[in-house]
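Ticket #348: bound-state structure for guanosine-5'-monophosphate.
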Amino acid sequence: MDCEADAFYRQLPKVELHAHLNGSVSVQTMEKLICRKPDLNIEPSMTAIHSGRRTLDQCFQVFKVIHQLVDSEEDILMVAKDVIKEFAADGVKYLELRSTPREETNTGLTKRRYVETVIEAIRQCKNEEVDIDVRFLVAVDRRNGTDVAMETVKLAEDMMLATDGLVVGLDLSGDPTVGHGRDLLPALERAKNSGMKLALHLSEVPSQCEESELLLNLPPHRIGHGTFLHPEVGGSQSLVDKVVKNSIPLELCLTSNVKGQTVPCYSKHHFQYWYQRGHPVVICTDDKGVFCTELSQEYQLAASTFGLAPEAMWRLSQQAIDCTFAPEGLKQQLKQTWTQLQRQALRE
Ligand code: 5GP
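RESOLUTION: The complex was predicted; output attached.
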């Protein structure tokens, strides 16, 4: 990568809205986890996709390996703090982390302690004056069905009240080829009614049109990926119309989609489709550890692939602030930070 461009995109203030905690673990943190658990015989090559591409199914296998390495409160605290500090070092000023609460009988981890530990990591980073604001989305793994989804929503509601607004919403993720959104609707509706924001993975693979039609009626507050929404790739105009009518921002993760083979190459990424229409899009990493990327690199790739000038990239990163689930006051503060940093960059 070009050094000057590298520095520009690292310094550009950024907002990260689509980052799965366990997919975001860096090589350095992974080494520490592997040292803690030598008996598992896990090699670093099993936890990240350095080069080449994988099927989506193979990507999901990687998460299973990582989950074996991250199975105690101590692991979660370390992983979450490291991930937050790495995003801050990459110029991310506001981060929404998401993660699926897990219980682990071996270590006595409960789902509640899981969420509380991530919150503790966020608080510790704040106390250590890491230059980043962090909020949390509780993730529902679609594979686990109706009852677990409802249980997760209740936990998220409790945590939203207990954390003074650090828990801001719910994510729907997990293997898109498993389960159907219709079974999760009651849980998603309940979450929305209790004031939670919804960030849903939608149309990540072809063949989810019917599900997307249904879930877009909620409507969600943001869409993860939305790769196959538009008619050119097998989606439909009706899906596009719903997204446009409600002005639902899309979280777009270029490298993740290329490495996971849901898009054929960077230049064919659906970023172009939505960006050209002036629809709100936010560049994100998805799983910076698994896909070996950083948010600054994703911005750089979008700029070079689609021929976008630095001013356009400033605009893109600033517009992402309005797509966050942050309270209005924090949005205003972030906008001021952007303005100050942009003035400073112009003077240099
Ligand atoms: P965690 O929730 O354990 O912090 O992060 C890993 C989990 O996030 C995975 O097991 C999976 O449920 C979800 N995840 C990570 N990346 C993706 C993705 O690209 N698509 C979908 N649908 N889910 C993902």
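RESOLUTION NOTES: The longest helix spans residues 328-347.
TICKET STATUS: resolved
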